[in-house]
Design goal:
The chain has about 575 residues and is of the alpha/beta class. About 60% of the residues lie in helices and about 15% in strands.
Length: about 575
């Protein structure tokens, strides 16, 4: 069944069969982004493998890298699985490939066969794909009310156009849906079919979004735009007749689908892709088959508009195709690798980061608690030890050793519990927190007067008598004579020494350790926080190394995301 309008498609694609360059151009150059990402991730991981496997940060890191390794294999496998797709696309490097795309029973096979019927028998060759290899079919594609396509199949039309009829999306076998998605990348444009019974459903819109992000030109088509009309004949019998849906109903559905597609893309944060959406075309293959092939029937069934839309789609595909090889790689990097990173690696990376924060907080709390405990206990012990050292011949060496040994033991005891999980080097190596330059013991002394003994004989005998006489004269009379005699005797005898001169004498009766204890505790209050912090440095460094590793991972992911976005912009220009 042919009318002259259909031949415009054949003529359009025949004009540019030699304009396309080989699809594998720049493939390896773009894949360097993926390979660089994978290699750098492994390098970052290797930089941090010296930690013990027992500590919680190493365990979180191991969990992250197990997930990475699993996804890496998945990403590599996904690219290998696309070899068949790329091989197929490469075999049609000089033809436009349109994918007829949609859910089960959208009428894909019917539309494919109809478009093929507008070409001469010699210009069409039906085929199917099995394991990426083409096998010729002897007849048109099967059509039916149930899913009839279990594999990728299609038809070559002339020397410049290929239609791919795919298994329905969301079909009963997951393999079919996956097969469809894999071969979508080989297409230069998409005829998106959605049935008029339930056009533009949510899941269809999500898949349409994915295709729009690949920047492929898309033509939405509402199929099966017909209905049953009931009437009564002259014999009063009910007659059911299949008719086209009215122009009003068709237009309402077209507007509705366009509005909901635009709304869905806006809600998904892809307002930039809304402009790529064409207004859907509404058709009924079944009604045209039942017609006599008149021009009015062609128009009424929506095919005048459909073929004009296909011509425009082919023209857009003509400009899309030369960059498709790059687009395929970018699509892979975006929808497989980057999507995998975001969906699979984000969570374990966040958990790793949260664990680092927890360990840093716990370690800081341990360190502060240890300092408080040591200083508190030394506040009791130092005075006792200082008193013992004072009684042990002022043995400051023994006092210093006791303090250092105690602090060393406490730090090592705490660090052994925590730091040994991380690194052997994190065990305590304590510098002396106390040394001999801590002050000295003080003597306990008493003061008393003591008579001086040197030179006292000068006040005895004649000299003493003279002194006594002088004193008696001052008193005068008989009394003076008596006083003078007594004093003269005292000054001149041994007793005279006691009365001549005295001096204040200080005598040591013990050793006081109180001031020394105070001095030691003041110094320790400054030295112990420093010593504890120094001993915790390897442990804190191990935690910091993990934080730095996470920062490197995040930076690497950010750089890869930026590269993919940049590649997407480049191929869309």
């Amino acid at each position: 069944m042919q009318v002259h309008h259909e031949h415009r498609i054949r003529n359009a694609v025949a004009e540019f069969s030699d304009e396309f360059r080989k699809l594998s151009d720049n493939e390896q150059e773009l894949l360097k982004n993926r390979n660089s990402f994978l290699n750098r991730w492994r390098e970052i991981t290797e930089e941090n493998i010296h930690q013990s496997k027992e500590n919680p940060l190493a365990q979180a890191s191991a969990s992250l890298n197990r997930t990475f390794a699993e996804n890496q294999q998945s990403w590599l496998k996904a690219w290998d699985m696309q070899k068949a797709t790329r091989k197929f696309a490469d075999s049609y490097q000089n033809r436009i490939i349109l994918l007829v795309y949609g859910k089960v029973n959208a009428g894909k096979s019917s539309l494919t066969n109809f478009i093929a019927s507008t070409f001469d028998d010699a210009e069409r060759r039906f085929f199917c794909l099995k394991d990426g290899e083409q096998h010729q079919l002897s007849e048109p594609l099967k059509e039916g009310v149930v899913e009839t396509t279990a594999q990728i199949q299609g038809v070559e039309l002339g020397n410049s156009l290929v239609l791919l009829d795919s298994p329905g999306l969301y079909s009963v076998t997951d393999v079919n849906g996956e097969l469809t998605r894999r071969f979508t990348d080989s297409a230069d444009g998409v005829l998106w079919l959605t049935p008029s019974t339930s056009p533009g459903q949510v899941q269809e819109l999500l898949d349409l979004k994915q295709e729009l992000e690949k920047r492929k030109p898309i033509l939405p088509v509402i199929t099966r735009s017909d209905t049953w009309d009931e009437d009564v004949d002259e014999n009063d019998e009910l007659i059911r007749k299949q008719v086209n849906k009215s122009k009003v109903v068709r237009e309402q559905q077209r507007e509705d689908v366009l509005e909901r597609v635009s709304k869905a893309l806006n809600e998904l944060g892809r307002a930039d892709t809304v402009k790529l959406i064409r207004k859907p075309i509404s058709i009924s293959v079944q009604m045209y088959k039942q017609s006599l092939g008149q021009k009015d029937d062609f128009n009424d069934c929506g095919f005048e508009e459909l073929f004009q839309g296909v011509l425009e789609l082919i023209e857009e595909a003509r400009y899309y195709k030369p960059g498709k090889a790059r687009q395929q790689v970018v699509n892979y990097l975006d929808t497989v690798v980057l999507a995998g990173i975001q969906s699979q690696l984000s969570q374990p990376l966040q958990e790793y980061s949260a664990r680092v924060d927890q360990e840093r907080t716990a370690t800081k709390a341990d360190e502060e608690r240890l300092v408080r405990d040591i200083l508190h206990n030394l506040g009791v012990l130092v005075p006792e030890w200082a008193h013992e050292a004072a009684n042990d011949g002022r043995n400051k060496e023994a006092l210093v050793d006791k303090i250092n040994q105690y602090v060393t033991h406490r730090i090592q005891e705490t660090l052994t519990r925590r730091a040994s999980q991380y690194l052997d080097a994190a065990r305590a190596t304590v510098a002396d927190v106390c040394d001999l330059d801590i002050g000295d013991f003080e003597d306990i002394a008493i003061e008393f007067e003591q008579i001086s003994g040197s030179g006292y004989e000068a006040g005895g005998s004649a000299a003493g008598a003279a002194a006594g006489a002088a004193a008696g004269a001052m008193v005068g009379g008989p009394a003076g004579a008596v006083v003078g005699g007594i004093l003269g005797g005292l000054f001149g005898s041994k007793a005279g020494r006691l009365l001549i001169s005295t001096e204040v004498v200080t005598s040591t009766v013990g050793v006081d350790s109180t001031a020394l204890s105070i001095s030691i505790l003041e110094q320790l209050s400054k030295r112990i926080p420093i010593a504890v912090n120094q001993c915790y440095l390897p442990l804190n460094q191990a935690i910091d190394n993990s934080a730095q590793t996470i920062a490197k991972y995040e930076s690497l992911i950010g750089y890869f995301r930026h590269s993919v976005e940049q590649n997407k912009q480049e191929v869309s220009q």
